[in-house]
Amino acid sequence: xxxxxxxxxxxxxxxxxxxxxxxxxxxxxxxxxxxxxxxxxxxxxxxxxxxxxxxxxxxxxxxxxxxxxxxxxxxxxxxxxxxxxxxxxxxxxxxxxxxxxxxxxxxxxxxxxxxxxxxxxxxxxxxxxxxxxxxxxxxxxxxxxxxxxxxxxxxxxxxxxxxxxxxxxxxxxxxxxxxxxxxxxxxxxxxxxxxxxxxxxxxxxxxxxxxxxxxxxxxxxxxxxxxxxxxxxxxxxxxxxxxxxxxxxxxxxxxxxxxxxxxxxxxxxxxxxxxxxxxxxxxxxxxxxxxxxxxxxxxxxxxxxxxxxxxxxxxxxxxxxxxxxxxxxxxxxxxxxxxxxxxxxxxxxxxxxxxxxxxxxxxxxxxxxxxxxxxxxxxxxxxxxxxxxxxxxxxxxxxxxxxxxxxxxxxxxxxxxxxxxxxxxxxxxxxxxxxxxxxxxxxxxxxxxxxxxxxxxxxxxxxxxxxxxxxxxxxxxxxxxxxxxxxxxxxxxxxxxxxxxxxxxxxxxxxxxxxxxxxxxxxxxxxxxxxxxxxxxxxxxxx
Length: 543
Hints:
Blueprint: H1 2-31, H2 39-50, H3 60-71, E1 74-86, H4 91-98, E2 101-109, E3 114-122, E4 128-136, E5 139-143, E6 151-154, H5 156-161, H6 177-194, E7 200-204, E8 209-215, H7 217-232, H8 235-247, H9 256-268, E9 277-284, E10 287-295, E11 298-307, E12 310-321, E13 324-335, E14 342-353, E15 356-368, E16 382-384, H10 390-415, H11 423-426, H12 448-459, E17 463-467, H13 468-484, E18 494-497, E19 500-503, H14 506-515, E20 521-528, E21 535-542
Parallel strand pairs: 6-16, 18-21
Antiparallel strand pairs: 1-2, 1-15, 2-3, 3-4, 4-5, 5-6, 7-8, 8-9, 9-10, 10-11, 11-12, 12-13, 13-14, 14-15, 17-20, 18-19, 20-21
Helix pairs in contact: 6-7, 7-9
């Protein structure tokens, strides 16, 4: 009897052990593998992985590298080269661009806002334009031996750069990990609940698996409305958004009525009805390797490749419209991240535009060092334009511009080119909003290159937030240009300043300058002739 009881107990233990083993196996299969999970759950699993701090799409080693750059000094050395191909008979004009390159070497200490770079623009093996760039805190300067032995420096440029740094202010909005987690979970779950299993599918490829989300216009509308409806009743998240708007110097504040109006606009928007959105996320060995987004005629693909100690990210966008395809591709490759001492950065940007393909190669070799040797700006090595009088400053600007023109003319002659045929002009795609047929410009006997060369002298000043001291520099540039140009088509004819129209004369420029306050902000725009594309009018208004 005792023996039978013992056998029964053993049998029960064996059954319990089998059940326990199955439970452990099922639990492992669910949490440690992708078995038993739906396409919907897998899609969201890998989407969530993109932003994970340790196992996310951005490798930890790369984050650590950029973090070290901010705190540790380093030397750098590299080059920029070009490879432009054309199928429209312009091969010869791009030959000089492809022969050109830019080399640089210097030292950087970001924690002190210090940088020095010795740069050389090499048109050929013999024709070169060397110059030095230096930044010490908010002062930047450029020096070229053919112009002078001192740096010509200013702090006005760095003041204008503040606009570009606005987006970084979002990191100054205080938000705890708990608050951030709450926001992610709340809005992530809203999207997840709104989607059905039928919106998801599995993609099988040779070396990877993908999980696709497909949404039509009605799906998109419903998701937008649900998210906004929740935001309207989420004062904590709304306060964070308004804090961010405040850092952007935006006085407007989002309130519930604004969100109601936006919801109404979305519901009334019939254009969304015809849109289809596809998001596919690919994984290999349960690690995200790429994501593809398609909407109508646009496709965007982001992928990551790790080969040995090399890390590479590729971003590609493609647009198909009117039987034409345009592509933009950006590749970033990093070597040596495992050592965190000597790192090679390689970037490549490709633009495919109709019959022309532009490729830009940037190589930068970084070596972390103990300290830098960057001399501060002083009276012996620099001339700081903000510290000299207006007349002296204008005379200096005019003299520098004339010297640059003279150097350019001499170097272009050595290359067998005209003054207005500097290869750097052809290195950037020509995008002109006024005509798809640039032949119209021939009505003034100005070539496309001449028009762009002329306009570029002024376009650098175009801004929504330009300091008065820089606006005065623009007026000096206009005055010098008009005095030196005999061709009436290469002169600025009108200036619109704070609601008043002025003909461009020396007397009127002096009058406008006297009305400009150096520390005030101004909006500067230019108007171009609708037939030629040439800038003929400057519009300057105080903000």
